[in-house]
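QA checklist item 7 of 12: single-chain prediction sanity check.
[x] sequence parsed
[x] length recorded as 210
[x] structure emitted
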Amino acid sequence: MLPSSAVTDEALVEAWRAGDSKAGNLLFQRYFAAVYRFFRNKVDRGVEDLVQRTFMACVEGRDRLRADASFRAYLFGAAHHLLRGHYRRERALRRDEDADERSIVDMGASPTSMLAVRDEQRLLLEGLRHLSLGDQTLLELYYWERLTGPELAAFLGVPENTARTRVRRARLRLEAELAALATIPERLKTTVDNLDRWAESIRDALALPT
């Protein structure tokens, strides 16, 4: 028997849809940290509840998940839907307002997960939180969860080329936010020039419950 780490998401999804609860549990164990990280840098309270509700949504909707679809895109799609609903309720957004078009800073949230110890890490986290929620989510899925082009396309519901273009534009907007927030030019340069490395350096810390 293959170790659980060697079993693909697709195989686990197929078994789970066929009624194998152990396969579902393995999927949840595999992605708990990622979903926790998804919410931790975007909300200031209720992270555990949102994580639980995300997995419950996956349980309830598992029969709608195609066997050949990306489970990660499906999972983060469910998390994103709940996140938008969270901000609609918590911040009393108008019917014509979309949380994805506003930053969490604009919506009054202030996540306390500032675990960064380096200036570049703090600058990056703050820059992400000043982006629109849509851009923040997209970049975090790209840098922290390493979603592929096809997975990002499935998450966004757009062609892959469009998804890649959105990532590039979101990164440009992030660089502009970093420039506006930076107080030391050298910190800005090292952050922008090594964005992948700084993003990686805070990735695991955000997945740890406080």
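[x] summary fact logged: The mean pLDDT is 86.
[ ] second reviewer sign-off
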